[in-house]
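Notebook, p. 212. Picked up where the previous page left off. The plan for this session was modest: take the two constructs that came back from the sequencing core last week, fold each one, and keep the raw output in the notebook itself so nobody has to go hunting through shared drives later. Recording the first one now, exactly as returned: residue sequence, then the structure token string.
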Amino acid sequence: MPTINFSKTDLASLVGKSDDFLEVLPLIGIQIEAIDGDDMTVEIEANRPDMFSVEGIARYLKGFLGIERGFAEYPVSRGDFIVNVDKSVEKVRPYIGAAHISGISMDDYLIKSVMDLQEKLHATVGRKRKKLAIGVHDSARIGREITYKALLPEEISFVPLAMEEEMNLREILERHEKGREYAHLLEGYEEWPVLMDSHGNVLSFPPVINGRLTAVNEGTEEIFIDMTGTDLNLIKSAMAIFCAALADRGGHIESALLKYPDMEIRMPDMAGGEMEVSEDYVSGLIGTEISKEYAAELLEKARFSVNTFDKGMKVRIPAYRVDVLHQADIAEEIAISLGYQNLSPELPKSVTFGRRSENHGLKKALKESLIGLGFNEILTLSLTSDEEQFERMGMLEGDAVRIMNPITEFHTSVRRWLLPSVMSILSRNRHRDLPQKVFELGTVVYGDGKNRTHLAGAIMDDKASFTSIKSMVERILTDVGRDLTLREKDHPSFIEGRCASILLDDKEAGFFGEISPQVLLNFDLEHPVSAFEIFIDEIRL
């Protein structure tokens, strides 16, 4: 969980109360890690990025302590910044958001607070800048018309932060500390994104580094914020979090006009959204009868606004509360405001006895066999995309259970098999030493909606071959008392003639072989990979 460092005096000033709030912090899910004089370190749940800054913590505390109730309004003026989004960025980093904050006086402490929030968002929701990268600039040095486009690495030069000399984009990746750290995010792209103003000045080379020209210093009074990434909704949410924090410091929020090739939008949008919540659902989930009127009071304490109606409530959700996705999240806020310590525990109404699942012994034996063979176990997400599950694996299409309203383009379906996820792990770890041997045992969902258990593994090594993976599969099955029968198999993910089906009792129970060169390229892998996938439900001890 992220840790946040700040001044206790500053928090008290923002809340408008003395340190009486220290006893309250654990009640709202904030664990105090250390207090050293005026310095505090707290731990925040990863699902609450709005509290990754002292301003966000203060905002929530004020509601809990009754200092301010209900929806925190953040007026947005129509600003004069325009960002023109060139079509060239579509493949490398397609989305950008922007906003302008005026009327704020930056000092050392506030600069550090802003930078800490920036890095916490990078590391968490931004997936280490892969999905989101944030730039903060002194806007007094910027022309009001900005262009976001992709250029060849040698085509543009500027002086990056923490450097004295001008460099082109390739030199930055090779010689700058941040360039070396984030170079992998631009691998495989011929053109790289830059943000330039109307004077030709480079503001930023996302997702790597900002230009030195627009660095924020003590005395900066207006800030231009840019956020680039692969998910526009995520950018909108992160921008709301960032702007709310600066507005809590007295800043005035001004929107920027973003001109995409096919649309125009203004950002930030601080209006928030709405959700209807059932009174019966909340009472049932919390386990105690709560009227909608009382629930509305508790939600206002958590900084929501509520209108009640016959069957429940219409809850207005702040734009910065990206964690609220379902009625259950609203019920949780009601329980927090009520106080878990005020809820009476109840014993279950029926007595049940657990037992191990039918395949527990088999799964345990398979894991022990693989670990004994030098494999490392991995655990990946069940939600994936058609691109990873089929396209990158050399398949035109496949049957899968798909999500009707996916939140992101990376989670549009439930995984149909495990091998694509295994390949993705190898891709992310391609900079590590060889050989790499990984496996995963988990649930997949077929196109008919039924759950199945699969086991998949892979070896990445210069010596990886059909023979080496065959010997591994034979050993695994021998360890669980089954003999291996093979039949040649044609599979688009594998090299032709180097793939075989695993037959048990005349039924296909899996396959293995050498991954095709095209699939290796799709996952940016430079070394041979041999892999297997076994259908556990077809094996019996």
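Okay, moving on. Second construct, recorded in the same format:
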Amino acid sequence: MGDIDYQTLQLEYRPVPPGAASHWPVVVVGAGPVGMTMALDLSRHGHRVLVLDDDHTLSIGSRAICFAKRTLDIWDRLGVGERMVRKGISWNVGRVFFRDQEVWEFNLLPEAGHRRPAFINLQQYYCEGYLYEQCEADPNIELRWRNRVVEVRQDADRASLTVDTPDGPYSLTTDWLIACDGARSPVRKMLGLEAHGQIFRDRFLIADVKLEADFPQERWFWFDPPFHPNQSVLLHSQPDNVWRIDFQLGWDADPAEEVKPEKVMPRIRALLGKDVDVKLEWVSVYTFACERMDRFRHNRVIFAGDAAHRVSPFGARGANSGIQDVDNLAWKLDLVLRQQAPDALLDTYCEERQLAADENILNSTRSTDFITPKSEMSLLFRNTVLRLAKRHDFARRLVNSGRLSLPTFYTESSLNTPDSDAFSVALPLGAVAPDGPVTQNGHTIWWLSKLGGEFVVALFCSERLPDAACLQQLANPDFHSLPVRCILVVSPELEGDIEPGVEYVVDTDALLSSRYDVRAGACYLIRPDQHIVARWRDVDPARIRSALLRATRTQ
């Protein structure tokens, strides 16, 4: 399918047909990247989902452009990752400049053996367009454009909505309402809820420009450059020869004036050169804000993405965190909808993702304080760090041009079964399961592609296989009372000893064994969102079952 102009695409409004269902298991409000990812994830679990959006267009301008490796892994599981990566600009390297000198180069993915890069840059309208097409082709998902939620009520068992359309209002009910309706969240306001936090007294100009340039596919950040003195600038490459430039303006800048071409173009030409042929694609002025709701769940209404929390854009923590919100929520809601777990499991979404929001807000606030110092002492500290960073490693660790998005590790989650055996501290309990190449039927595949939307018991067998009775017990659905798969990860020497019908992969280069600290053997229990929830040095079905019950709040 060729690329279309997603910025001008008019999405079709369809009247609600007579006799249409008035009750849905799940309704998602907001058809942005977070809302559509939520719908795709729930559909993969077999649930019908209604998505309501008050608009009928996709994103205007590039907006969110940096999508992290963890987000790409999630989209791979949902069948859209490869398309995003093919279109996007992949990058791992960033450079930091102070005035007219480079002071530091960093690589966010220095080791080989990963399917995806540290980041891709992809305009949000492409991201939304690809997700929209995936949702539109999914029979479990119904997208309704120009359907504006105007009232939300709820009781103990369901939420009731009034939805306004060009043909007039209608009503529906849902077991669960997922609010992914952005930083200004109308659903949040309807329920009388608020987000609390900090507005930073600074303004930044975003300019998307189209030009032919031979800059490398890297992230470049300048502090106090000669072409924009006393301020900062960020440069990123995007597909279609589009470049994102962020200019710090200061709090006194007039947003209405700064977006005018006669104000924007001199800044761009000061950076790129007077003779460069540049075309402005999109311009916006924004103010940093870091805030979140006190609680993300309110009975039958659950908030995700910017509706629940908001951070400044440096660090690419906004959209990536929102995608990880719904990655956390979808499998829990699936089990609750199937009555395989109590709805108390959904409270752990709040526990884990509120922690993630706090982590992102802390990192974003620190980045903002470093990028935009508000006192002479803070400015002196920052500039001294930047001067030292050119020669000293300790100073490089203090440079903060936006701590880039990483997945939150749920190390203290109440769903974890604490370690009873010793494992490497490099891979803590609650971490995202590391990826790596493995072999299956003679073909190289990626380990995370084997971990779908269910619990996985991964048995790492470097010296011997578990006995047949143990494997038979682990494979018995009645033993778990939950969807669980058992996968053996074996050394090449053991492949010939595996009985027919046992699912396995071969750790040909022992890279996975190294990343999972296997030593002589290990057993990992991995959640449907690919976080490690329990592990042991030996296989014990009783302990595995106990850990599953804990991980689903069923004990």
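Notes on construct two before I forget. The domain at 437-551 is CATH 3.40.30.10 (Glutaredoxin).
Flagging for discussion at group meeting.
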